[in-house]
Design goal:
The chain has five helices and no strands. By secondary structure, the chain is mostly helical.
């Protein structure tokens, strides 16, 4: 296994874990949405919590097995997340999303570079 792919994959997984752990429960997810200035309904909170759960589990999987295939799938996911963040910004969502967009672009580019160079 390429060590750069594993290193960047694990680093990206750690970032995702830290960035989304607050969305793991309805209580912490609600607080985080409020902090981001996002209006919160029961549906919004449910989807944020589902998102948090899936991303935390996916992060753990990539941390434990940073295989090129998993990192490649994650890199595609980051490109899609970036697209949706940009779309949300374009449609007037909170500017706080710009920070998440920048971080997704950074991690996606870092992982893609490691994958291409292997």
């Amino acid at each position: 296994m390429n060590t750069d792919v594993a290193r960047w994959g694990k680093a990206g997984a750690l970032y995702d874990l830290v960035a989304t752990a607050a969305f793991l429960t309805p209580w912490t997810g609600g607080a985080m949405l409020s902090l981001l200035g996002t209006p919160t309904s029961d549906s919004t909170l449910m989807f944020a919590t589902l998102f948090g759960t899936v991303v935390v589990m996916w992060s753990i999987a990539r941390w434990r097995k940073p295989e090129p295939l998993l990192i490649a799938i994650d890199t595609v996911g980051r490109a899609l997340f970036s697209l949706w963040f940009a779309w949300a910004l374009w449609h007037g969502q909170t500017p706080a999303i710009a920070l998440f967009l920048a971080l997704e672009l950074f991690w996606g580019a870092a992982q893609l570079r490691a994958l291409v160079r292997r």
